[in-house]
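Researcher: Going back to the complex we discussed earlier. I've cleaned up the inputs and rechecked each line, so this should be the final set. Can you rerun the prediction on the complete assembly and write out the structure?
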Amino acid sequence: MAIHLSRRNFLKTASIAAASVPLSKVVAKAETGVTKAPLVPPGSFKDTNTVVGGVCEMCFWRCQLVGKVRDGRLVKIEGNPKSIDNGASICARGNAGVKLLYDPDRLKYPMKNVGKRGAPKWQRITWDEALDTCATQLKQVISKHGPEGLAIFPHGASASYPFHFFEHTVGTPNVSEASFFQCRGIRDMAYMATIEQPPGENVDMPNTKVIFLLGGHFGENVHVSHLKRYLKGLENGAKLIVVDPRFSASAAKADIWVPIRPGTDTAMLLAMMNYLIQNDKYAADFIDEYGEGFEEFAEGIKEWTLEKAAAECDIPAAQIKEVADLLAANMPNVSIHPGRHVSWNGNDFQRQRALACLTGVLGAFGVKGAFVPPIKPEGIKKVKWPHSDHDPDLLSDYSDNSYEFSPPGTPTDLIRDAAITGKPYAIKGCVIWGQNPIQTIPNQEKTIKMLEQMDFVMCTDVMPTDITMYADILLPECSYLERYDYIKTGTQWNFADKQQQYIAPRMPLVDPEFERKDGIWITNELAKRMGYGEFIPTKDQVEMVNTRLAGVGLSIDKIRAEDGIHIQPGEDPYGISEDMTVIFYNEDLEDAGYPPIPTYIAVERAPQGYMRLLYGRSPVHTFNRTQNNSWLMAAMDSTPVWLNDKVASTLGFKEGDTVSMVNQDGVKSRTTATVKVTPGIREDAVYIYHGFGSMNPELTTGYNKGIDDTSLITKLAIDPETGCHGMRNNFVKLVKVS
Amino acid sequence: MHSTESESSEQEPEFSTEATLLSEIYGFLALTMRYPSSSFLDGQFLDAYEALLQSLDWKEEYTNIQEWRAQTNDIINDLQIEYTRLFINTAQGKTIPPYASVYRDGDRSIQGKTTEKIKDFYRSCGYEVTSSTEPPDHIQHELEFLAALAGENRQEEETLFLHSLFRPWFIRFSKHSIHEARHPFYRVSIQLIDFFTKEEQ
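Model: Rerun complete. Updated structure for the full complex:
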């Protein structure tokens, strides 16, 4: 390079003459993005406006937000002061939404993978090319294998519309939502089988006398209005019982911490109930009126003495008694929390049934401090894809276990196994929308095998994740800050306050950038190209939300004028409906070949030299979804490995050691983390946060930070009633790296 | 093969001032930083590119571009894949986002304070970015803006923009690019941008 020549000199040289002609021609024919505009003097004042209507989705709790927007740029997110749910408060993740919005690693344009699945090489393409390719490929799969040849892995508010298109209109039953099959589906189905409704987290904690948590680690698990309810309860003097192998943030506030042996919770619950029944410390009147099959139930759990459970759970019998007595002394005003992420050990339906029955034994329904569902606004319409005439060929019909209490969709492993083996039929097309199945579904090797055998894999997301590495076509979606979709409804967070209801539709705080599109647009364009145009139920996201709101006489404009949240008078949530039933002995379960009363199924204990791998939530992350967020990673960029102090001393580990992990199948963690030595965890377990250690190098900040717990969950456990995974039956050894 | 002789025998262009020429060069360089499309990036474009390198007497770079053109089957496809890899989505530490704010605002952010400043600068000169899917501090738009200023011979503002809002981030951007840009087209283009935006010694 002729570095001696300066720019000015060069422009004066004669040699440029030869280049000038072609240059001017080329430049003249291309458009420029910079155009003349009215002159704005430097230093002109630009106001920061408050934009209303935000509904968070940094997690699924969906706090109501406002955005501080200057010149089209979102500079800050705050809680919507009008909110009667989260109020003006938002959590660290809610604040850090700005960094998701403007993350340079975010997906910006549709791309096709011109490399290999798992080792992608991307090429930006037009939306037309992307959608045409997806439509052609998916249609090919359907014509060869039928709609069942498609597997759908959705997650999040924006995924409902596309997955209902594939499930209802295209006709594949092979949909697996992580929120059901790897999270709360078991809870919902167990409560359905006991009290005929999914429980949510509907316990009246602010007004309770005792809060009973099984594994719930509030404070590390941060959902703003839920946490407000919990903290108000404690402030009001509620006693707190925490059953957890680990001294969690909640255990630290507990009156009684029960460091139970992992996997044995059902034994403890059965012993508590048996003790209460045997000692006439139960809500006999309530059960007379609302119970069903109580005698068979009481008889069936008789074997569970305090001593028997104590031996199984590795806790003192006196402590089980103490817990039971504390609850009985305060019944029915006690909050038996149903939990949320409950897919632990493959015996979880029984535990969740036991929790629901315990609530019944204590009569803790419909009264202050008990299980009390909010009465939410009614009348919001649904916008639905029509069901096709196709009679779906269900994988559960071919299975030894028909999983009759499965949550909606098809159990994940039925889909994955069918895809890998081709039996009972082939599954050759995959649509992944907002879910990262590499980090949601245990046994990554099988998930990758499933993906590798597909004819076509389409992913839609806001960020690169582990799974996007396996896409053939990758579509960039608007984030929750740039779209309309979900309508959040609820009541004031504390039932002791004036009864109110709210309706808060998500509205964009800023316009989408690059070529990101909302899920309604993407799905409709895909549907048209696949030949389902006539079934499209709504033309766009605005029409969809307005149609739904019309059911309650509202519209986006009206609610925007009401500062983003419509508030109306509420109803007293207390009381028990006449048709309330607590099904202690469930004949439908019996007919299907499952235990009709809650039954303890023992799980394998840690083999010699290994510890059970437990995982949970970080207060500043939502699993893998926030792994590239620069603010949140600045706060916490790895997961400490909780290790019992005695074990550490025996094995020669000390605080701050860098370790990797190897599990019982010899699978090693790809990455490392740092040891936290503590008496606050049992000797037979280690604990890390879920969601770290992403393997996608496209995440500049999050790549390979901390250990990916899912990579070590290779041994599968399937809950027999629901087909959901149990993910805490794997065992690890720590390997010192430095 | 990529001779410019046939071009020079055509009608003589009208360029009278250095400013016009500089404007065209900025405009041309802006195109090198735009996502490749056959609508502008064709044989004629690459002929002009080579002519520019020849004028500069950048022999090695000229040869590199010629060699690539001789061996490639699909110019646009090559460049699209490389552009996506370099500037849109690629592996950790290898992405070189072409936005000023990512380098200037401390915590790797698109639409940072710098973006706002750059937008304000455009407006204070009577310009704005329209009909683009990219933020205003994308290198393509900054070069287009410089082309617009040069076209009006607004040297003072051009110098101020280069000094205060372009070079400070471009220096960091180009350092990364030299490591990562394997394709001669982007490596050389970034060197050209460096040459034409460098402050006079």
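Model: Worth noting: The radius of gyration of chain A is 28 Å.
Researcher: Good, that matches what I expected from the previous run.
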